Amino acid sequence: MNKRKERGWFILFTVPLIIIFATVVLVPFFMGIYYAFFQWDGIGANPRVFVGLDNFTNLIGDTRFVDSALLTVKFTFLSLVSVNVIGLGFALMVTSKLRTVNAARAMFFMPNLIGGLILGYIWQFIFSDAFRIMGQLTGFESIFFNWLINPDYALYALVFVFTWQMAGYMMIIYITGIQSISGEIKEAALIDGANAWQRLTKITMPLLMPAFTICLFLTLSFGFKIYDINLALTGGGPINSTELFAMHIYNEIFGYSRYGYGQAKAVVFFIIVAAVTLSQVYITKKREVQM
User: Is 205 domain-assigned?
Assistant: First the structure.
């Protein structure tokens, strides 16, 4: 009787979630794959023309698609390094013997609580007005200028804002990993005469591999899929120098009304993100096993 009750409660709580997940995620996903084989403008009253693999083969000669893919890879790589280096640095700082540890944790994590659209508009003001004023006051106008209107710097502005938002979030995961390291191991290293750098590289970093697995996965997936900050901060400009993958697909579908072609790009985008993130998880998980 107890098992039947447990099974009943299990079904009661899981089945609605499965239905919602299937409705919101699985059904649109497979419908998107289906539409990728058609030429269609997204309007239900207009006919859909089956074109087979033409939408996928046309991607090879699509220079905007290739440029957007390369920009996204560059942005994700830069963000992967900056977010995790700064996030780990924050974690090491707030797990040390600072008097203002709690205040520092709250301050570092707070940017993650701000929505991407709001964050983008805030930093748009900072880059356009605050940087200009700082450049005039300090004389460093070669550094403090509006990065958003310069095609050579706009992508780095995106990386900067994304790092400012995500570093505190990764800090929390790294803090959990650092606190899970046994104090006995640290004490043994101190007794053996290991200095701070040796303790960091020989003990802390290897034992943080589970945290690295999670943080690298999240940074990669968030970086590849970024849209809200991209929209609010640069809108893909100037001259499409920051039109990342998600925005490019959105513009293809809703801007140019090429629904089928845009869905083909979305399918390729999914395959790339899945391949990269799963490879990263496999490599870092393998490293955990070796440790």
Answer: yes
CA proximity to 76, closest of 158, 4, 6: 158
pLDDT tens sequence across 121-165: 889 889 888 888 888 888 888 888 888 888 889 999 999 999 999
Cα 236 to Cα 62, 72, 230, 240, 270: the distances in Å are 17, 12, 7, 5, 20
CA 92 to chain centre: 22
Q: Is residue 46 part of a domain?
A: no
CATH code of 120's domain: 1.10.3720.10
**DSSP-derived 3-state class of residue 181:** coil
Residue at token pair 């034992």: 207
User: Is 212 within the bounds of a domain?
Assistant: yes
- At 9 the three-state DSSP class reads helix
pLDDT given for residue 140 in this prediction: 82
Helices 154-179 + 101-109 axis angle, to 10: 140
Report the predicted TM-score, pTM, of the whole model to 2 decimal places: 0.88
Question: pLDDT tens, 244-278?
Answer: 999 999 999 988 889 999 999 999 999 999 999 99
- CA dist 112 and 83 (Å) reads 12
Q: In this structure, is residue 16 part of a structural domain?
A: no
Torsions phi, psi for 217 (to 5 deg)? -60, -45
